## 1
Amino acid sequence: MVMENNNDEEIVEFSGLDNCIEDLYFELETERAIMFGRQKDDKILFVPKTAIKGGWKKDKVLHQTIKVRFPITLFWKERKF
């Protein structure tokens, strides 16, 4: 089930008790955030560095799971070419 807000933005679903986001792959690191992607529909997700618990891998091939601090609402965005 895909949850959306009033602007038709897809809200990120968390899994498990550890507040995880699964099946991400690293794309880009900025000063404040990490950009992750997913393959099923080529959407991207920006996660603030301060919201990530335990780190992430800078591997553009390996799928990974990250833990996120709550409360936070994140949105998948359409990739703009």
## 2
Amino acid sequence: MISIFGLIYSLVELQHFRDNDMLQIKKQQSELLVITSSSLDQKIGNITQHMDGYANQISTHEIKARDLGQIINHDLKVNYSSILGVGVIFLDQDENIKHHRLYWELQNYYLVNKRYNKTRDDEVRWLSKSKQHPKRWSRPYYDKNLKQYVISYITTFYNSETHQAEGLIVLDIDLKGLVNLIAKNIGEKFTTVISDDGYYVYSANSEKIVTRASFTQGRDNDSLIDRQIFNYNKTKPCLSLCHNVVNQQDIETYAIYQHLKNAPWLILAKFNPQDLELLSRTTDNSDLMIKIASITLIIICLGLMLIIRQMRARNQYKLYWVATAFVSLCFLTATVYTWNVSRNLYFVDASQTITSDHILQTAIKKYQKEASLKNLGEITQIPTAIMVDTAEFLTSYNLQLTGTIMQSYPIESGIQYGIKFNNAFDSQIKLISDSYTNNSHLLIWSFQTKIRENFDYKDFPFNHGKIWLSISPLNSSQQVIFTPNFSYYNGLSDINANYGVSPNIIVPGWLIKGSFFTFTNDDSRMIDEVDSYATVHLPALTFNMIINSTIGDAIITTITPPVVIILILFMVLLTISKHKNKFIEFKLSSIISSCSGVLFTIVFTHVSLRNKLTSEIMYIEYIYLLMYIVVIMIPVNAFLFAKTDLKPIRYGDNLIFKSLFILLTTGFIFAMTLYSFS
């Protein structure tokens, strides 16, 4: 009855925990979508406001079209991030395209007058669309001259007297700029952007962008979901966050979406049940352990009831063995099951993880405030991506990492380049690539370093850990801070994904279960605390990899030896008998001698383990404690059997002690397993 109540309680609590966890995850993703849509709206609104303003100024002759590139250059850094170029198309009196065109292309952070690079097809398409919508955004397309995927904003300027269209202004923006905004917040994995005419502006499936697809052309599950959400929004426009559940092919997909105010785009994020489970970062260990214990006890009770019913009709001695074997098998099966599920029973403190640009800027704000108070100027953020290629444990606490680091520095910033590894030794770093883009100086480093990690081995051999790599600028006197490069990873909202880890990486005996970035105290910065009014103690960027041991390796290398020793002790126990046998002879001295030899083996392996691992009481040590108890109790039992006539000892030729040996052993291990992982 207690087991049944325990099972019901654990199921209710686990469901309650899961429901709350799902609500929290949905809330977090909703907040990220709101931040993403707000960022897009702000960027789009800024662009359209300025471009429409320039078109009006050209219409009223306040500025000349040929001066547009120079005018935009004044506002380039502030208002036009991700700009690639701007062009002007002139129309004749019949609103046909003239041959005279202007184009300015971004080169080294500055717009320069270049040969007009648009094709006639592009112009004709824009002209026909502009007659219906004088101000509009294009679909993403590949620009053969810029050699990039771009998205263009087209606005029309008019003759102030006749109000006839005189030309079009076309602003080309790198599609990566839009993608970067998504990656910095909710992440690219779950997000889709659809225009009001049904075409994909952004999708995690790049094929839809390359083929300039519409969701009406797709028959895959994602396209069908997109169509339903699009129709929901068309029926009832969603200018603030909306939620919906779409059932497609018997799979319930949770969708959040919002229509932008400054662009004809719908942004939506979709999560199937598996996605939501993967975003879960906490586990309710205690209730799960209660559930396992309750189910195990219920099965044992039902099995024993069946066995007891058979005791009247069969040999009781045999049924004692059957009963104890059945209970022991239940304990053993439940223990192995708990070992298996323990691989996912770890708590990751996500409160300090940097999963979005909003969290990043909030974290940096306090340092920027301190820098402003001390008149130290702006803190420069250096987007940094880390890719770990290999990880090798040299000892239980020391490991060697190799990989690459990519950094994007502002052009002509005057910042001294360089990286140092904190709390590391024998570090080697080499610059392998030095290149420039339109707006950044890109550096790629290869590295090899050795780090001493402070692993927690209390659950050994089924333990979890965290490999961390902490880096900071080589010159600690600069107001520079390394930050995660969200665009490189396509977003960092899912810490259970292996971002920054090579898919081919193999860590013998370990599984990598996720990765994330945090800021940690940078003790390597040589700052004079007495004279700290002239400095800001900036944090180090730390890349963390969540790891746990493989169950096969743990059982074979660590669990099997104690189990073999326990079985040997059980066989020694079976030799205790009042019946003489020409093959097996019971001698008290032989029992004591055998147990003494086993004791030395246990002590030696235990001491060797302790010399290798320094931790509080480890899980495996409960099994060693059990072996110490068993190796003492067997000689005691043998002595009592040989020297006394106690009925519990003599009953059935030491049946009680023999039959209870494996039962109590497996029961103790099961109880300690539940306690350790709860």
## 3
Amino acid sequence: MPTKSHQIVIADGHPLFRVSLMNAITEYYPDATIELPESFGTLNRVMGAGLKPDLLILDLTLPESAGFSGLIMLLANFRRVPVLVISANTTPRVISKAIEHGASGFLSVDSDSEEISSAIGCILKDGVWIPADVGLSQGHLSDSEAKAAQLIGRLTPQQFHIAAEMAEGLTNLHIMKKLNLTKVQFKKQLDSILRKLEVRTRKQAIVSINYLHRVLNATTTTLQ
């Protein structure tokens, strides 16, 4: 049984599965320190506060994550943190996209504790884990997917959150209050978002972020 203490983040939006994952991990890694953010916004705050876990387990349907968009942003901003993706959608293309975007592994939500432990052990040793009974798609990211990933990857966690809130229809004032930002701080972040997304106006940024989310999740009509 592993003896080294590890810090692991389980970012999953399903309470029962979150507990199941935690129990499976503590069975094999009893000394592990586990964080349990329930939304992408909470995960961003935890990571942005300086947490450097040995492993991040990410549910592709985590609230506010926008599927692959959230994965890409995390990988771009926290390059040294390996990410193990969890999803009920285990089609070869979904798994391939997760790995192509930089995830260190992929697990089905139906995985038992032994497989979860094996996946974690593999990734902690710098390996890559995919389900044994799944053959990866031979396709590569399209040019539009690669460009979309590049643009999303430019955003910081806070900028990603702001862009997502704008896309949801929130006003600048509501976003400032929700994220506890001053007008000056918000304007600075908005200007940076516009520049990074290569647009000129707030409206164009909203159109752009929605388009990027659609492109990145185009092959996954449902991730759940």
